[in-house]
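## retry 2 of 3
previous attempt timed out at serialization; input unchanged, resubmitting
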Amino acid sequence: MAMFGLIVSGRLVQTEFQPISQTQFLTTITDADNINHVVVFLTGAIPFPEGTAGQVFFSWPDPNAPPNWQILGHISNSKPSAIFKISTLKKLHEMDTFSSTMFGQSNICHNAQIGISIEPLMNITEVPSPSNPQSHITFAQKMLENFMNFVLSYSVSQTNMVPDPTATYVPLSTVQNWYTNFERRLAQNPNFWKT
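## retry succeeded, writing output
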């Protein structure tokens, strides 16, 4: 009897999770290059043992290296299904400078794996939500810094300017004032930009 199921858009439901141990289960998603999201769920046939949940992991296996498992989140008896975004995880894995293949070229596999590890509830790792206000603040600050560095790289003094009737010039002080105001508003209300 299958305990877990996996839904990938446009494909049949998968319930073929292979037991690796009494608490670890694994399934393979073939041709996973263009998959954006997966749904992992309990089938209802077998619940988790009392006080446990399933930590869900994702990996792009490489035949030349150990698996690079990334935590997606969890499912439990009280949260029997979850949708996980995986579209950016392969790119992150390929660019991972700390992976075990950093000194050699790895073969890119087109199959992915989903692993579920049954753990005590107190050991379940929560994955930060992308809607976390702190992640918005960090993103906005990095974006602003990048924008300011880009603009400053083109700055010239007035004495070095060449008149160009087709160009529009904005004083750098105006951009710096905008940057300061945006940063202040972001610190006061991380969601101000949503209104």
